[in-house]
């Protein structure tokens, strides 16, 4: 009798926010970066993609993906590369053990749900492809390590390779033409520096005007600052940042994080035509952090911005009250504070101009912290009959 079982595996995967930015590709087809990068994995309690991968001989092809209840194409080169690599690994297992079900030949049904805005500068593709790769790897019972799987996730979304590990993660750019040395590497686990916190100011939940893929390739082709950043700036910043993380030196971590964010966005502005990912609200957030640190008499907070206007502000748990005394009085009415202590009142150090812009321009806040890598979960988004579960 033919195998009619519906096989399922589910995982959640985190967002990561880079403190050393990935920007530019030396090989677009393999998603190989021109420079190394380093990120902080954020807690899945606050930011995650939940994905269920299922397959069955009873499913009709082709493979399908439902993201936040909307059908998505799996026919893109990136998606096809990930699925091909995962199927090849499963096929090797099946060739070696004839009794295994031929899952590599079955159509896939994939269902994903994000608990944060998609395509709004919050690394949705990183969490998405990390969850997809991890869920299918679990479905196929693959034994590859997260670092080995990062080679596959990288083909889907470069920064997704960093979301396959928790804590503080580097993505080495590598030098090989085949990309086998361009993979994620653990710098330090969450437990090493567990009191790292982050406040995200969501400036816009709209889709970006210039996608990261388009933007970085234009930068590579036109920016005069790009080569200096790639060859000189980033290698130095990587070394300094890894040292700061390993020694839990927040002052250096913060200095490099802000300097690196500014360098990245300066390169975007040096692109022809210039790419404006930051806006007036972003610049007000930068000013608020500068005023906060000045009042504290030391660096207790660090801003960074990916390819979008949302501010990510890192700080240590011991300095949380001081940091939130700046932002809570301004943004108290915004969604996302949860059960935060409402006794924290202003006025904080932010100047009136900063207060006005942030009040008007921030749509919500996200309070989070350093977190773990992907987690296998028993909650499936596809039931045992192969139907999508309402979420």
UniProtKB/TrEMBL annotation:
Mvd1 C-terminal domain mapped to chain residues: 198-375
EC code(s) of this entry: 4.1.1.33
Alphabetical UniProt keywords: ATP-binding, Lipid biosynthesis, Lipid metabolism, Lyase, Nucleotide-binding, Steroid biosynthesis, Steroid metabolism, Sterol biosynthesis, Sterol metabolism
Pathway info: Isoprenoid biosynthesis; isopentenyl diphosphate biosynthesis via mevalonate pathway; isopentenyl diphosphate from (R)-mevalonate: step 3/3
Gene Ontology biological-process entries: isopentenyl diphosphate biosynthetic process, mevalonate pathway; sterol biosynthetic process
Transmembrane segments annotated in the record for this chain: none
Enzyme class: lyase
Gene3D superfamilies, A to Z: 3.30.230.10, GHMP kinase, C-terminal domain
Catalyzed reactions: (R)-5-diphosphomevalonate + ATP = isopentenyl diphosphate + ADP + phosphate + CO2
One of the record's GO molecular function terms: ATP binding
The keyword Nucleotide-binding is annotated on this UniProt entry: yes
Residue span, Diphosphomevalonate decarboxylase-like N-terminal domain: 13-182
Keyword Transcription regulation among record annotations: no
GO CC term (a single one): cytosol
Family: Belongs to the diphosphomevalonate decarboxylase family.
Full protein name: Diphosphomevalonate decarboxylase
Species this protein is from: Letharia columbiana
